[in-house]
Write a structure and sequence with these properties.
The structure holds two protein chains of two kinds.
Chain A: H1 2-34, H2 38-42, H3 56-62, H4 70-101, H5 107-118, H6 123-135, H7 142-167, H8 170-178, H9 183-194, H10 196-212, H11 215-220, H12 229-236, H13 242-275
Helix pairs in contact in A: 1-13, 3-13, 4-7, 4-10, 4-12, 5-7, 7-10, 8-9, 10-13, 12-13
Chain B: H1 2-5, H2 12-47, E1 50-53, E2 58-62, H3 66-72, H4 75-106, H5 113-125, H6 128-138, H7 145-152, H8 166-194, H9 198-206, H10 211-239, H11 243-248, H12 260-269, H13 274-306
Antiparallel strand pairs in B: 1-2
Helix pairs in contact in B: 3-13, 4-8, 4-10, 5-8, 6-8, 8-10, 12-13
The chains are: A mainly alpha, B mainly alpha.
Amino acid sequence: MKKNLILKNFFIYFSALIVFLIMFFPLYGLILTSIQPENIIRSRNLSFFPTEIIFTHFAEVLKPNHISNIYEGIKNSLIVSFLTSFLCIILAFPAAYSLARLNLPAKNIILGTLISIYFLPTILFVIPLFVILVSYQLDDTILSLVVPYTAFTLPFVIWILKSFIDKLPVEVEEAAKIDGCSTLQLLIHIIFPLLRPGLIAAFIFAFILSWVEFLTPLIFTNNLKISTVALGLFRSTIDIKIGQQAAAAIITLIPVTILMIFFQQYITKVVLSGSDK
Amino acid sequence: MTDLLNQPSNSQFKFSREKILAFTLILPSLILVFITYLYPAIFTFVISFAEYDIIRLKIKKFIQFKNFEFLISNYFFTSSVLRTIYFGFLICVCTTILSFLIALLLNEKFIGKAFLRVMIVLPWAVPSVVSGVLWGQMFHADTGFLNALLYQLGVISGYKIWLADPLVALHVIAIAEIWKAIPFMTLFFLSGLQSLPSEVFEAASVDGANVFQRFSNILFPLMLPIAIPLFLIQFVLAMKSFDTIFVLTRGGPGGGTTTLNYFIYQEAFETFNLGRASAAAYVLLIITLAVVLIPTISRFLMKFFWGNK
């Protein structure tokens, strides 16, 4: 029996190591490429550890006239992602409350439709939106990114917030209502503070989804007047300097990685909150 | 909630007022979603039967089913449809199996589990452009780790240009997509595993069932209701993947990695044939709906005819 346990433990740690290597090695390779001089990257001597660490690739990429234009990209992506997340929360919070608590007719159909829209091919909506934006000369603006992003992310955010509201105890709301609290007061003063984990999770989801979006900015900013980080990084792939390309990729990754590591528990909560209903 | 509604103070008048309130709260979201989804979807549907003038931004003339007829007789289109289905199926099968295994691992107790979980979730936040760059460098003909590794192990005699072979390139893209898709499905499987009652397993191991019996007789049937929706969702998401293809191969070589979604992009924004692109977009929509609906319908039929699941 004890021998069995040791064998089992060995098996667990061995598979954990394998999983770690598979999931992390690609990122490690990227980091390695970004901090080594071009001649080492291109040499055929395989080494999984850095032999010479330099940061010139990062310095090059961060220069204002670099092809990937990372400053501009980061600035725009931050603006767009923040605006999108805020808009999503403002729109989704009352909607989620309505779906979770109020006597809304056909609520399952509404929620089901909203969620299934998320899985439809994006390109179906992008073609006409492009035509509309061009005809009103709204393409290549921040607005042309924020509005579609918000719409694409909104169903998901509503679903997250709804599953969090479902978990709040109804008694608090009942008590507040008996005390003569209006629905608006209830939403702002009682539900909003209670819902903080859900709101953080929803905000991060919306932020990350906007940060990584590629197809929409690719099409809607076709005149290259504004750029996002994803687009800038893509432009750096036209260049043949592998080290700089890797450095640009790392810079693109940093904000979302920080969000992921710090708020990993909230993101896990979203999934867990959906399961045991 | 029902208690609250059935209180005597809730007269018929108040009841309908709550409905109005419920609608007002959800209305802004619905309006935005309808403007950005429903109207464009109708627009796309209309121009799929027309020739669209991209310069003047209006419909030139209606040509009935010509767009669809052109597509069906076009070899690039039909092959990209088949490729899309293969690509989607491959990705969701591999992702489902791997995610389930990783979730089983994370369900055990071991040191460093929290750290491993962060590492597994991380690829989800990696923008697909970054994952394109990353896997592109991995499989790079001159500088890729794979070439270097295989060369030094003596598996290959010279450096290979992986992305030059259409079939290899398609699978490289699939690997990139699977790597990015694993985190989320793993989390869902994990939450499913954790919601299972532990008594079931204890009872089974007391009865002397071995690992494989426990898996096939207990775990597998219990996890199936979670696995099927995840499988279908992954199928649908994989079929609409675009970024990795765009970054890694641009649909090449020789159209070998052009999935339907990429085909639509090319028709719409490279050759600016919006009518044809819209028609193709509706074909993709139909395939997507079929993937989701066929299992549901077949389950319904089975229930109807045999009276069980």
